C-alpha cells in the first residue's frame, strides 16, 4: 500500500469514514435502543431497585454512575495511551485495539440481563471505553491528514457521514423492533426485546466492517524505534503537564480550552440524558408510542444534524469559527429553557429538530477550531489527549451536577434548565478568545 500525501482526497475520505463506522455506537447504544432496552428490563421484571455490592440502587442512577465511572477511567487512561502512542509513533495500533474492544463489547450486550448485572454492566463499560478511546486517536489524526484550511470542512464531513450511517442502521433496527414477526422473531413483547438484543450485535459488526477502510489508508504515525518501558507509561501525564505549561504562552488556545470545557460539559450531558428525559418527562400515551416516539426523535436529531454540520461549516468560513460557536451556544441556552416547559410529543419533536441543528455543528466546529489553534508539533496525540481529558472530566462533572439537581429537586426539568448557565458562560468565555 502506498503512503498517501497529507491533504489528498483519498486520505481525507478514509479519515472521515471512521465516523460512518463508529457513530452507530453513539446512536444505537448510547442514545436510543440500549436505554429503551435497559428500562424495559426493569419494567418487565416489575422492579425499580436492584441489589448490587450488598446495597440497593435505582435503575437510572445505576447506569448514570456506571457511565461516570467509565469516563473517570478514560480520563486516567488517556494520558498513558497518548504517552505510549507518541513515544512509539504508532497511533493506529491503539485506535484499532479500542475499536475492536468497543465492537466486540457491543456484541456482548446481547447477553445483558438483570440476573448477571455486574457482567452485563462490564460489557456496557468496555463498549464505552472502546468507543471513546478509539475516538481520541481518531481525532488526533485530523491535523496529520488535513491542512488547516481543510479541517473545518473535513470535520463536518466526518460528522455528516456518521449521522447518515448511524441513521441507516437505526432504521433497520427500528423496523426489526417494531415488526419482529417480519424478521422471524415472533410478535410478542419478548420478540421486541430479542430484536433489541440483535441490534447490539449489528452495531458491533457494522463498526468492525466499515472501520477497515479507514485503517487501510491511515498512516501509522511518526514511527520511531523506541521501545516501551515502565518509565514511559507515565510520560503521558508529563506530556499533559507540558501541554498545560505551553498554554501560558498561547493565550488563544488557553482561553479557548476554558470555554470548551464549560460548554462541552453541558453538550455531552444533554446528549447522554436526552433519551432518559424524554422517557420520563414526556406524556407519550403508551409504551409502544413511547418507543416509536423516542427513536423517531433521535432520527430527527441525526437527520437534521447532517444539515446543521454543513451549515455550521459554511457559517464558520464566512463569519469565523469563534463568532459561530458563540451563536450556537446561545441557541443551546434557549433549547434548555424550552425543555423545561415541554410536555407533549410534538414539543419534543420540535425541540429535537433544533438540537440536531446545533449538535453536529458544535461538535465538528469545536474539534476543527482546536486543531487550528495547535502549535506546530508532531506530537498531536498529546494535545488531543489534553482536549479529550478536559472533555471527559467535564462530562463527569456535568453528569454529577445533573444527577444531584434531579435527586435534590425531584425533577429532571430543573437539571436541564440549569445547564443553560453553562452555555451562557461558554459563550462569554468564547468572546474573550482573541479572534485570529
Question: Main attributes?
Answer:
436 residues; mainly alpha; 80% helix
Helical fraction equals over 70%
The CATH top-level class label: Mainly Alpha
Largest sheet: 2 strands, antiparallel
Structural class assignment: mainly alpha
Radius of gyration: 21 Å
Q: Please count the beta strands (DSSP E, at least 2 residues each).
A: 2
Helix-strand pattern:
HHEEHHHHHHHHHHHHHH
Please tally the helical runs, counting DSSP H or I stretches of 4 or more residues: 16
Average the pLDDT over all residues and give the rounded result. 82
Identify low-pLDDT runs.
Answer: none
Please name the fourth-level CATH homologous superfamily: MFS general substrate transporter like domains
The gross shape turns out to be globular
What fraction of residues sit in β-strands?
A: under 5%
> Could you say what the CATH topology is called?
Growth Hormone, Chain: A
Name the assembly state. Answer: single chain
From the 3D coordinates, which CATH architecture would you assign? Up-down Bundle
Termini separation comes to 39 Å
General description of the model:
This protein has helices spanning 9-31, 33-45, 59-88, 91-108, 117-140, 142-145, 148-178, 189-217, 235-247, 251-281, 287-319, 321-340, 345-373, 380-409, 412-418, 420-431, and strands spanning 49-52, 55-58. The protein is mainly α and 436 residues long. A two-stranded antiparallel sheet has the order 1-2. Helix 3 runs antiparallel to helix 14 (380-409) and helix 7 runs antiparallel to helix 13 (345-373). It is globular, with a radius of gyration of 21 Å.
Amino acid at each position: 500500500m502506498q503512503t498517501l500525501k497529507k491533504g489528498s482526497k483519498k486520505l481525507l475520505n478514509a479519515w472521515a469514514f471512521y465516523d460512518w463506522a463508529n457513530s452507530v455506537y453513539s446512536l444505537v447504544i448510547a442514545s436510543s435502543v440500549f436505554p429503551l432496552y435497559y428500562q424495559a428490563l426493569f419494567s418487565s421484571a416489575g422492579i425499580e431497585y436492584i441489589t448490587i455490592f450488598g446495597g440497593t440502587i435505582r435503575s437510572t442512577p445505576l447506569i448514570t454512575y456506571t457511565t461516570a465511572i467509565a469516563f473517570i477511567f478514560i480520563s486516567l487512561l488517556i494520558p498513558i495511551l497518548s504517552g505510549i502512542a507518541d513515544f512509539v509513533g504508532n497511533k493506529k495500533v491503539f485506535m484499532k485495539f479500542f475499536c475492536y474492544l468497543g465492537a466486540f463489547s457491543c456484541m456482548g450486550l446481547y447477553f445483558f440481563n438483570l440476573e448477571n448485572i455486574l457482567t452485563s454492566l462490564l460489557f456496557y463499560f468496555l463498549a464505552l471505553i472502546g468507543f471513546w478511546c478509539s475516538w481520541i486517536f481518531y481525532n488526533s489524526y485530523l491535523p496529520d491528514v488535513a491542512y488547516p484550511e481543510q479541517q473545518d470542512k473535513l470535520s463536518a464531513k466526518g460528522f455528516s457521514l456518521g449521522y447518515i450511517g448511524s441513521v441507516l442502521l437505526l432504521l433497520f433496527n427500528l423496523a426489526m423492533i417494531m415488526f419482529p414477526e417480519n424478521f422471524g422473531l415472533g410478535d410478542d413483547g419478548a420478540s421486541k426485546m430479542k430484536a433489541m438484543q440483535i441490534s447490539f450485535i449489528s452495531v458491533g459488526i457494522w463498526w468492525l466492517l466499515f472501520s477497515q477502510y479507514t485503517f487501510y489508508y491511515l498512516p501509522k504515525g511518526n514511527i520511531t524505534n523506541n521501545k516501551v518501558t515502565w518509565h514511559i507509561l507515565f510520560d503521558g501525564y508529563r506530556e499533559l503537564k507540558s501541554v498545560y505549561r505551553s498554554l501560558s504562552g498561547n493565550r488563544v488556545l488557553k482561553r479557548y480550552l476554558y470555554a470548551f470545557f464549560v460548554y462541552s460539559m453541558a453538550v455531552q450531558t444533554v446528549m447522554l440524558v436526552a433519551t432518559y428525559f424524554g422517557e420520563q418527562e414526556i406524556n407519550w400515551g403508551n409504551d409502544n408510542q413511547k418507543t416509536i416516539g423516542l427513536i423517531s426523535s433521535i432520527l430527527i436529531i441525526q437527520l437534521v444534524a447532517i444539515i446543521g454540520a454543513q451549515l455550521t461549516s459554511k457559517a464558520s468560513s464566512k463569519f469565523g469559527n469563534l463568532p459561530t460557536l458563540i451563536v450556537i451556544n446561545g441557541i443551546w441556552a434557549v433549547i434548555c429553557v424550552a425543555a423545561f416547559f415541554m410536555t407533549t410529543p410534538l414539543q419534543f419533536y420540535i425541540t429535537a429538530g433544533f438540537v440536531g441543528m446545533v449538535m453536529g455543528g458544535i461538535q465538528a466546529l469545536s474539534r476543527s477550531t482546536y486543531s487550528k489553534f495547535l502549535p506546530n508539533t508532531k506530537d498531536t496525540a498529546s494535545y488531543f489527549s489534553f482536549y479529550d481529558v478536559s472533555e471527559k472530566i467535564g462530562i463527569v462533572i456535568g453528569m454529577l451536577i445533573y444527577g444531584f439537581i434531579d435527586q435534590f429537586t425531584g425533577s429532571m426539568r430543573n437539571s436541564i434548565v440549569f445547564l443553560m448557565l453553562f452555555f451562557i458562560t461558554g459563550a462569554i468565555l468564547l468572546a474573550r478568545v482573541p479572534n485570529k
